[in-house]
Automatic annotation (TrEMBL):
This is Head-tail adaptor. It comes from the Bacteria. InterPro entries: Phage_SPP1_head-tail_adaptor (IPR008767), SSP1_head-tail_sf (IPR038666). It comes from Rhizobium binae. Transmembrane segments: none annotated.
């Protein structure tokens, strides 16, 4: 019976996208991008972040790091965000951010979505917190 305890207990980082189930998408994220507006003189001006859609996601922590920005040490915590592939989620890129609907934690998306299993079931992207995520 010693071996039966280990069945089904895999690390999140070792689980492949093909092994994903909807039950793993326990977080709810608001995906936002900056709006564009007119300044009154015909120029396009970048505005505040606006929620475009909300989706269920799995948030997987990765090893953190500390970077030096402007001679200050800043801790950066990277995460892998995994969502179902859809026309909306495939539009995400590094200009977007995600906000946890429950904790209001801001995730800055730093890489475009990747279709790991090549079946368009789930996509993953790298995001960070702790840096300049709301700038």
């Amino acid at each position: 019976m010693r071996g039966s305890r280990d069945i089904g207990q895999q690390s999140h980082t070792n689980r492949e996208a093909s092994e994903m189930t909807a039950g793993n998408l326990r977080s709810k994220l608001h995906f936002q991008k900056r709006g564009q507006s007119d300044d009154g003189f015909g120029n396009s001006v970048t505005g505040e972040f606006e929620t475009v859609f909300t989706d269920a996601a799995e948030i997987i922590p990765r090893m953190g790091s500390e970077t030096v920005i402007a001679s200050r040490l800043q801790g950066v915590q990277p995460f892998t965000i995994r969502v179902r592939s859809s026309t909306q989620t495939r539009e995400l890129d590094a200009t977007w951010r995600a906000i946890d609907a429950r904790s209001a934690l801001v995730y800055s998306i730093v890489s475009p979505p990747t279709n790991l299993d090549q079946k368009n079931a789930y996509i993953e992207m790298l995001a960070t917190t702790g840096g300049q995520t709301d700038a």
